Amino acid sequence: MKKQNQRREALVYHAKPSPGKIEVVPKKPYRSQRDLALAYSPGVALPCLEIDKEKKEVYKYTNKGNLVAVITDGSAVLGLGDIGPLASKPVMEGKGLLFKIFADIDVFDIEIDAKDPDKFVEVVKSIAPTFGGINLEDIKAPQAFDIEKRLKEELDIPVMHDDQHGTAIISCAALINALQIANKEIDKVSIVVSGAGAAAISCSKLYMALGAKKKNIVMLDSKGVIRSDRKNLSKEKKAFATNKNLNSLKDSIKNADVFIGLSKPDILSIAMLKSMAKDPIVFAMANPDPEINYDLACSVRNDVIMATGRSDHPNQVNNVLGFPFIFRGALDVRASTINEEMKLAAVKALAELAKESVPEQVNIAYGVTSMSFGRNYIIPKPFDPRLISRVPLAVAKAAVKSGVSKKPIKDWNRYKEDLESRLGSNQKIVRLIHDRAKSEPKRLVFAEADQLDVLKAAQIVQEEGIAETILLGNRETIEDLKETINFEKDVEIIDPKDRKESKRRKIYSEIFWQDQKRRGYTKYDAKKLMRERNYFAAMMIKNKDADAMISGYSRNYPSVIKPILEIIPKAKNIKRVAATNLMLTKIGPIFISDTTLNVDPSAQELATIAKMTAKAVEMFGIKPILAMLSFSNFGSSKFPQSNKVSEAVEILHKTSPEIIVDGPIQSDFALNKKLLDKRFPFSSLKSKKVNTLILPNLDSANITYKIIKELNEALSIGPILLGLSEPVHVIQLGASVEEIVNMSAVAVIDAQFKKIN
After folding, report:
1. Which is higher by pLDDT, 710 or 407?
2. Catalytic-labelled residue, pool 40, 61, 523, 562
3. What is the CA radius of gyration of the chain?
4. Would you call 205 a catalytic residue per the annotation?
5. Is pTM beyond 0.90 here?
6. Whether pLDDT at 46 is above 60
7. Domain for residue 98, yes or no?
8. Number of structural domains found in the chain
9. Residue 362: is its pLDDT beyond 80?
10. Sheet of 467-472, strand order
11. Is the domain of 407 the same as that of 452?
């Protein structure tokens, strides 16, 4: 993405449709006067009195136990430096967003205009009663050390400076596993740390807590090696001063086992890397550009075990692996502090998780057949769904064991289940879809590229690396619109009506006529139709001139689907095409079928739709749990509509026993696990979370998904066509740019899977 476009996109993202990235949302009913009387006066007085009698009751009657303050003075913001409290607010809001989507923790961001540590501490202490925990952020060293130390001593809630401890915890987990792979012991390895800020100091301390020897650590700052004979060292730096006769990184790195980079780009040269010991461990964590380029390092030493702070390389040291889950565990046991035991528990949980089999959802997202423990996988991926249950659980247990818990958990199995139910934001699903598409981009045709919103979506798809775009439509219009939106990338533009395409139209028309000559089409008809974009685009897919296709923005669905069904064959053993919509709801992803094509399918057709939908769900790395919906439950009605669903379920149980499916069942029972388990314990859906709904006809499916989309503001991805041999997808009339981008990613993933299968 060009810097100008990136600037515009970033500013619009933060400003529109309303300023900022977080908001406060009521979580109790407020519909009636009775609700308001309970929420405020006079009902609110009663919990106030209870808290007045017993202070700990504040956790029972308020959100304090799930509320974290993200606090800064704006003195060390990202790579921007001392930009002050106001300019730091977007970063703090972003941190709040991450807390919410990864660990379901509410956040107030607090920007304090106070550079004096004493004043800063006093302000934080004065507002601390509001919060269950405090995350210090972007405070410069050495003040950061003193501020955190004092707050931890003077407050009885968890306090953590993430810039220090977040990086330390994640890199420590990575180091444990890297040492295991290299067959080295932590108490014997020599470690060189480039950087002496808050993160570097904290990393070094945590490595020592795990067994690294101080005598084996050499630390450097901007002036060179931190030696004991240097003057004016801070107490933090003095603690890591060495007596060794070393002056530079070049001197220090020779025969070193481990390099920890928390400094600046490109300071570790090829010669330095070559001078390191066998199986060197290099954590180049400067962002966005590491101390040595990842590809360069791997080309120089094939035995290197490397991590960076970047998401586009293996082994990303990302703080989001730590802070949301550490605070989650600390809050849930009402810990009075975050101690070393809790941090080490997080380290070990992350290290162990990397050694386990990776969920298929994660493999799919990152575009690999199977991720497994080794040089290119030493720490979990940020979007691993297991993080929410593993890390908080370990942290909570450590808090209880070390005696800092005020609310010990009695049933750990139940607690793990509760953690797994905290889904966070379904935007994670979108990120997974996009990342999977980016892993192997395909040639994607936009059949209506002379429509502004379609072109905007194509621009995002191209610039984000989701696909290589091919733009169909009026060439002059497309070029004018490209200039308007600063779409500068040189991409293929095709006007099906252009003389330049006469040769291709002739080839396509002949292929089409040969396929359709016994269905009433003449050669003249075929030639004429190839001037129409949807016929032309579909022929591009059929003729392998492109890999996938998106259309439907400007025309009604039947007119767009007709040429596709005429040109693109059905998949093997498929007699009827269907469609599903992925709805990203508050209770997680829900697939709804058939939303666009089959008006009143038979029992056999319903069973086929269910099979195709289950396969599509698996494409997203999700295990399908299907409910066949009706107005009745398990034979309570003998109407033909319900009997049809019963018959479809019987067919599925006989022909596809591997699919978890049951019905007919009403939608509330399907989506409410407790209700279903109580009333229908015999069901194969018992104790399972349904994620796929097969509706009995087009009316119910189409109405249902559109109501969910509009009333609940759920994000819809679809319709996703099922049963075609090629990845062709028809979006809804007037789809938003976001919807087109998401469907583009789905089309690419579909192309990836069809290539394999």
Report:
1. 407
2. 40
3. 29
4. no
5. no
6. yes
7. yes
8. 5
9. no
10. 492-494, 467-472, 442-446, 548-551, 728-730
11. no
